[in-house]
Amino acid sequence: MDEKAGRPHTSHDVHALRTALERLEARWERQQRSAPLVSSSQLRLLHALENAAGSNLRELCAALGSAAPALSRLCARLEAMGLVRRAHSARSRREIELHLTGRATAHLRELREEREQFLAGVLDSMPDAERAALLEGMDGLRRALDSSGPGRTGNSVSRSA
Fold this sequence. Notes:
The chain has 161 residues and is mostly helical.
């Protein structure tokens, strides 16, 4: 039983949430004004770097739950596309930090703007009571995702000494 909510979740609850998220993701992809610049895994990496600029490969692997060789290839592709740059770390000359380029920052900003415009249209089409319930639920979902509970997959990148 979920002690915080006071009632157990059902498989229907989980199915409904998954279905809504899958539909949202599909609609976001369809409504994009241009062909996607990056794949979903590359986008996850860009978001992680946006949240923790200057991370090294090891830190990104831990944050994203990815293997180093696969993540290194993603970084190389993004660097070739002009979205990521590598730099020597101020902490250690042997360590390489990864940073977003201005092009990547602009792409993330444009993507967010497109998604927010789409979501504004969806919210506008909802009855007030349903919209209020959704927004309250989203606050709870965001808090649950930010907590250190099971299944945490946040983008936070921790620095180790």
